[in-house]
Structures
1.
Amino acid sequence: MASVAVGAPPAPAAPEERRTLATWFAERGPAQFIAAIGAVLGVWLIGFFFLHGRNTLSLAPADTKPLHVWLSDLQTRVGEGRNTNPLFTYFFNPIRSVIDAFGTAIADLIAHPVDGRPVPYIGWLGVVVLFTFLAWVLGNWKVALLTLCGLLFMGLQGLWQDSMETLALTIAAVAISLLIGIPLGIWAGISDRFNRLITPVLDFMQILPSFVYLAPLTLAFLIGPAAAIIATVIYAAPPVIRLTAHGIRSVPSESREAVESLGATRSQELFGALLPMAKRTIVLGINQTIMAALAMVTIAALIAAPGLGQVVVQALSTQDVGTAFNAGLAIVIMAIILDRTTTAASERVETERRKSAEPNKYRRPGIVIGAVVTAIAIWLSYTYQLVAIFPSSLQLGPVHISLDVGTPIINAANAVTNWAQTSFSGVTNGIKDVVTAVALDPLQALLDQSPWWLTFIAITAIAAIVGGRIAALISAVCLVVILWPLQLWQDTMDTLAAVLVATVIVVVLGVVVGVWMGRSQTADKVVRPFLDAAQTMPSFVYLVPFLALFSASRFTGIVAAIVYAAPVSIKIMADGIRGVSVETVEAARSVGSNTWQVISKVQLPMAVRSLTLATNQGLIYVLSMVVVAGLVGGGALGYLVVAGFAQTSLFGKGLAAGLAIVLLGTILDRTTAAASKRIGRTQE
Amino acid sequence: MKRFAIAAAALVLLVSGCNATKVSDLQSRGELKPGSKPCGTFNMAINSWVGYEANAAVITYLAENVLGCFVKQRHIAEQVSWQGMSTGQVDAILENWGHDDLRQQYIDNMGVAQSAGSTGIKGQIGWYVPPWMAEQYPDIVDWQNLNKYAHLFKTSESGDKGQLLDGDPAYVTNDDALVSNLKLDYKVVQGGSETALISSIRQAQQQRKPLLAYFYSPQWLLSEVPMVKINLPPYTDGCDADPAKIACDYPDYDLDKIVSTKFAESGSPAYTLVKNFQWTAEDQNSVARSIAVDGMSDDEAAKKFIDAHPQLVAKWLAGTGAENAA
């Protein structure tokens, strides 16, 4: 949901002289702003005091409304008519065949046993050398070394084949995402109208919980690589589309005009000027798409996609945290390799563009030699067992070397988990009780025990104060749809309460840790790998220990959301603090400000735009964990989505809940994004 | 760069020189045993609980090693498994818990699936308390005394009422209706997953925390923590006819096997094996325990059981043409 993350080009703003509510508050500054919010809350509280418990529109988890039943029936009818429906025969089936063939081909190459062989065509040595070589060519020798060590480590973990299954699926999904995404992104970059059309579609694709479309996908594309790949593409394609469009839009208009004045045709302009200048942003988009694809690994495992996700999901059914952690670690390593390599590639693109001449004279012969070595390694790994199947131990003469680091990792993870669970569960459950009683329960009561019309008015008013008139209008429309036809009002309010509490904690963490990292290089170096790991470790891995620490409760869902969302906010804040110019900070110091004053009077106020961005992104990331929260006692919309995936008769209600999550996301995103833009304008 | 080349050359020598095994010398699985009918590919749905995995482990082992089938296990949720029956991607579901709506759709309406008989195991759904509670408060197992103990079960999620922890979203529960119709001072809290239930139960017994939870048997955890079932008003035929007025216990489920019609008519020995397959809850628990508690692989656990029960296995293999091969 990157309308802000990507720093969307300044939208054609409303004419300045029109006095919107927003400008009214912007002119009056923070004091009035707080007063207005306070007034709304005051009225809301008074209303709550007299009217609570009336018109709350509650609906028990197993009860359904007409729309829910209709959607479930629709799915059943489509399923029953599947084999005779021309839509399936002539549309879905051909698509499936092509994607299946593509996915299978890649998996045959590096992952599946194939052709009567017990192993794929390319064994471990071939894959390791090939990817190391690619990392060196596309990036630099540092990322090549990282790739080498990372891949070998996955083998040592005893997860070679699973890792390769995951890698093959990721490659297939990313390739298709790029094939579709880059042309669409170019189109959105050139055409304003198409850009406006596709932005809400991309928002929808990214926020709609994937649990909602897994069952329909297997209905349309059967169980197999195609359904898993398409599920991944739905989630992973939006970033590359957004960033390609953004890259093209950010090319300075002077450059475009210069090219046009030379009489270039449209395609010359595109391929000669726009694309080369946007190349770096596009590579960044590819990076984001790869990360998103890896985030789908465990979800795709629910529809039979093989690989690391499968290991995690199966370990969960026997509560084997160690095994799940081991596989999760392999996913983290794969993510770090792919992230660092694509980042290095985008830097290389940038430097090559800047100083187009004098490439390194060793580079060209290096590439030739590397290619030959890679070819030899691939041939060896095709032919010989030792370099085809990753060995679990080596016998060198009399010496027996065990090559198993998986077992120690599994045992250590289990030991740490047990220790943490038994030593801390008293304290952590205490924390849960306090936060629930002090923050979550009151907020939830205010939202879901007030009459629906009162909450409706209050939310719209707050959206107007924070985000302006348009944000208020969007919020009102979304809330109306939630009221009818979705009819999930109370569950939506419960989810909103949990999301708000989680976001407050995420933003506080973002400010505290972000300031620390922004001010100290060392802190940044130490903390950043943990942030990367928290973002890419599948949440299924830590659900079991969290359940032990916090019981099955709404708070457990909040904690899981914080683990996933805080890194984003922290990174954005750290970036913002570092962006405050050194001279300004020095100037403040020279007039005798102490550290605390420098932070609170100079760095934070100047990074306030980052703060709103951190809030916006924090919210969106928290929202994407609503379904995971439903798995650990979060209830409300998240639980309904999960139940809809599990029970046919609740499919329709689950789908409606998924849509309610999208609408909630739209309200929160548009309101905070509008606020962020306004603050940006006032600062200028 | 020279060093690269030397290293590569050394590697070639190392690998090809010292008696390296060639990939082409290795065999793949799925060989036909003499006497058995040709089997081909057997597509098996794997649902994610351990009891199911135990059924699947034993059947897979026999299908692969005795019948020479190529078994393709697909790890999918229940709803998706049934869907696979209509598309020909799933041949068999090995432990089915009820699912009347899916039966109606795929067996009655579409005719693409059919039941292949009972697994021999009765599934039981109900409310359970950890053993330490049943010891300390012996009368808690009667539902009429639940209100007396409601205060013990208060949590941050249930407010001033007692908490009834529901879990797995895969099963229909009547718990909301039960609580209100039996006038119990409890609130149903959605745990949201089997994982959430198991974690809560383990902790409840280890740390002697009060817990009232929706659970089911057979389940491997019960051999580690023998939860005690609460006696709700007994189930009688038709007492669950109107979901809103339910005030009785859950019925017993006959856990059966579902196969696709195509598979049933294919004459595959794997179908005969699935149809013959029947065992007891103890049998299943012993295999499930090997997998979940002792950390054996599915194959090891299956082999251990099969070696110990030759007569049972011979019964399962009757009619496959490979009765004596095991």
2.
Amino acid sequence: MFKKTNIRFIIIAITLTLAAYMVYWTIAYHTFPPEKVEEMRTDGSLDQYENRIVRLGLDLQGGVHVVLELNLPKLVETLASNPTPQLNSILEAAGNEYKSTDEDFFNILSRKVAAEDFRLVRHFSGLNKFKNDEIIAYLRDEAKDAVQRALQIIRNRVDQFGVSEPTIQKAGQYRIIVELAGIKDPAQARNLIQSTALLEFILLKDAQVTQSFIAAVDNYLKTGRQLATKDTKPVPEDTLVTLKESKDKAVSVNELLGITEAETGLESTPADTTLLVDERLFSEKPFSSLLRNVHNFIGVPERNVYAVKKILNNPGVQKLIPYDSKFLWSAKPERVTTPDGKTENYYLLYHLNREAGIQGKYITKADARYGSTQTNAAGQPIVNLSMNNEGAKIFSRLTGSNIGKFLAIVLDDKVYMSPSIRVKIPNGQAYIEGLDNMDEAKNIAIVLRAGALPAPVDIIEERTIGPSLGRDSITSSVRLGIIAFIAVIIFMIIYYKGAGLLADMAVLLNIVFVMAILATLGATLTLPGIAGLILTIGMAVDANVLVFERIRDELTKGKTVRAAIDAGYSRAFRTILDSNVTTMLTALILMQFGTGPVKGFAITLFWGILSSMFTAVFVTRTIFNYRTEHKILQSLSI
Amino acid sequence: MKIFKETNIQFVKYIKMAISISTICILIGIISMVFFRGLNYGIDFTGGTLIQVQFDHNVTTAEIRNALATVNLENSMIQKSVGMNEYIIRIAQDNSTENIPAQISTGLNTLKETTYEIRRTEQVGPKIGKELRTATVWAIIWALVVIGIYISIRFQFRFAIGAVVALIHDVLFTLGVFSITHLEISLTTIAAFLTIVGYSLNDTIVIYDRVRENMKIMRSENITTIVNRSINETLSRTIITAFTTFIVVLVLSFTSGEIQVFAIAMMIGVIVGTYSSIYIAGPIVISLQSTRHAKKQ
């Protein structure tokens, strides 16, 4: 017959073995050298580890945490046929209100539409839905569907990017959380996720149209300022100064824009930022003076980009832009050496048709490779594109009827290249050049293959932790944890002698158990999680303190050692239960409401307290029982 | 070893004084929160950008500010961090769509004498911040409600009131300290607040449990005597647990960043929580009892 105490020992032995087994995987995994991990990943033996270890959170191993939200106004705009300025302004107003309130976007939209007595059916015909409410309901469904598609597309992209154990999940209605651990280049990852992958081939506007627009802006800005034009210098024929002729001088933004401020409504910019304007053009043609001719395209020196963007966004200037056209910037600056030997970065400004000639949805293949020797991009990283039959037909028509014109290849509203069309291209083959390196080419190929997002996604929260910070955090928190643990151990031994040692053992066991539970749950250990674990050290001894104080009380009342132990445990247990349950309730609420760091803390706190009830009550009691069973103790080391 | 032997301190006698002191402290905190310093919400709640950057040479805050001025970000909050030449740069939310971290990099690139490593970037949108504020307030309200219900079931309703008032006392007091010291309120601080709630409650429950037990044993005694006796009997445990927890959070306070703020909040919380369990939670049970008796007569 087993004695009760023996059964207790067996239970302890089994749980301890299980716990040790679970913890073993974690320790083994985290002590492998990186090469070994890589090797095991390829032969597949890593899976058995990854399924049963405590993973380190982003704050400990470094990584990116991004919360994305589908840009709902843009989505509706994309779904609408022939969006008008009125629709766009309603969408913009709804979008702005959505950003600052808790209300659902479609409720706001519904309200705005009703307020303006706007009939949505004008833009959503052919749905067999006529009432605004019906169309809003349809849009809401479309948005839910779009989030699901975006989720899938982002998952595909991340999978192809090759990050181990990424987390990609839906949060709330229109949000997606992406967590990528241990990546080296967060900016690259961000581009990969956020890229809408909207590929368009758009024809450039004829040069005359662009010239007359620039002249109109010059005129607009000039009439806006009261600058006396006494010493007007002769202005060259061509409005855009070629690099060789330009005589640059530094002008403050205020000098250029401050004067026109009242008229154009531009915000004033601190005076110490200087712009590069052409001296001869400045007074006569203020807008042209910011621009340069770079290989017959409009070049804007990097430091003028801000001012040019401001001018283009000015409501008065917006009105001057021909309705069927838009302006886009080059993806990368071009490095140009000026006559006086200085190098200056130029961004190119493109004046394009508003409507794309052909969109990327016809792309069937996208591969990153080096350009072949026959092309301009020989030896450069390029992305080679193939279109399906339908796409090839459209492309063939587009190129055939526009020979001699320039065709911009635009990805996510950034122009990568703008070759001139020399011949009709019948086979649907094209490529993108102008990339920095092979990595960028690969990423673009990935996003094009994975498909375009239904609408742009905005990053509404981003946290990036460098790997070195994570390492420092582990080192310092583990060191402090050990110090705290030793301090508590010493205090307990001094105060409760033998019994204190027992309590210390219980705390140590508790840490092992919590790690084992976290491993079993596949939970992630974060920095606040470690704090929670350290805190449970302090709080776990509480259960033992309660018990020991009771036993001391009973001993002073004159009870025998055995009776005192029995009474101490049974009386203290109810207290321990009530006090721990309330703390666990708080931890549960934290798990429910908390995000990221708070959740990690709550999880370790919750399991720490639960397992402390086992270690501090069951385990220590067993050892007391064992000792009193074997001999009648006259005194207790407590 | 035993520090407390059969203590019989008349805690109940000092109740009025304790309540006055508590009220004054909390009032000072509330005045500071409402009229003077307010609360220093971190970007988790306000939205904005935080960047932790480590330089390989000595730089001063002024140098960093000048570097940031080149990208018009001279109004950033720049704070020395614990690490070697490490700084935390915070930028409040604005509506510009510019990529703030990239702008900061551009600005810091103008520092010629030193290179740097960006160790942490956090960007929180204003909407997220607002949602987190709401979620946090609800978390605290739910915690109090659930705790109240649990205590009402396990003890009596007046015990629940006592415990919840003591908890509100603790949270208000700690908030007051945060307002006066201008320590940052982040998600981690909120976790600390809720831990304080849990900890203080632990203490209160232990005393209440003894009151519940003594009410059965000492039927003839009045509630004042019972509460006083119970506080004395559990005093030893209260102090020891407070001490061990305090050691741990004291050690944690030598870390840096958010965990440090967490530890500081907890240090305040352990002291206030212990105090409120004795001087707030107990007396409320007494006064609720006496008013009931008074009504009966």
